[in-house]
Fold this protein.
Amino acid sequence: MPHALGNQQLLLVADQLHDLLAGHGWDAARGPGSAALPITLLLLSKAGVPCQGQGMDVEMGTLHEAMTLLSVTVDREIVRRMLQRGDDATDPGLMQGLEELVRYSQASAKAPRLA
């Protein structure tokens, strides 16, 4: 996914992810609203998080981990472009990591909890 974005879009998503992970709201003076959260939710749905009606049932910890994984992938793409390295698509690794995260989250939700 990150390699499909233009340079400006990639930098905006990187900033938005950083702000969200740091607990800051999006500064409207820097442009239109954040696309980072909807992109993360879309990727999680593609990775196997079940959709229920018009919503998704995803834990905050899973969402945070998914945004962290996406942020690292976006940062790697920025560095790849700056160093003008070959076209190494990072998407398979991103989706594989998200699918693993979803499987772990679903298994943890089904596991019995100790009182």
In short: Helices lie at 7-22, 36-47, 60-82, 91-110. The two ends are 41 Å apart (CA to CA).
